[in-house]
Amino acid sequence: MAPRFLTLADVAETLNISASQTYALVRSGDLPAIKVGGRGQWRVEASELEAYIQRMYAETADFVRSHPFGTGPDDDAPPSD
After folding, report:
1. 31-69 core/surface letters (b: 16 or more CB in 10 A; e: else)
2. Is the pTM of this model over 0.85?
3. Tell me, what CATH number does 53's domain have?
4. Which of 54, 64, 69, 81 falls between 20 and 30 A from 33, CA-CA?
């Protein structure tokens, strides 16, 4: 059985982002989390992470529909090597 709560390091690994980016998502409220324990360590419920991922898929699909390839600003272009 998968754990109910994930550390920020687990979330960072799952999303393939940095720990600081994960912390920013939590602190901004974009990714709901709780503080637990005497030292107030952050934990993200696995279901909240999955809901966040689904929201990002939906937001990305909306972005792609409203910014067709080749007509958007430079940040729509694929990264150069």
Report:
1. bebeeeeeeeebbbeeebbeebeeeeeeeeeeeeeeeee
2. no
3. 1.10.1660.10
4. 64
What does each of the 81 residues of the chain score in pLDDT, given as a tens digit?
Answer: 889 999 999 999 999 999 999 999 999 999 999 999 999 999 999 999 999 999 999 999 999 999 887 655 555 556 665
**What secondary structure, in 3-state letters, does the chain show?**
CCCCEECHHHHHHHHCCCHHHHHHHHHHCCCCCEEECCCCEEEEEHHHHHHHHHHHHHHHHHHHHHCCCCCCCHHHCCCCC
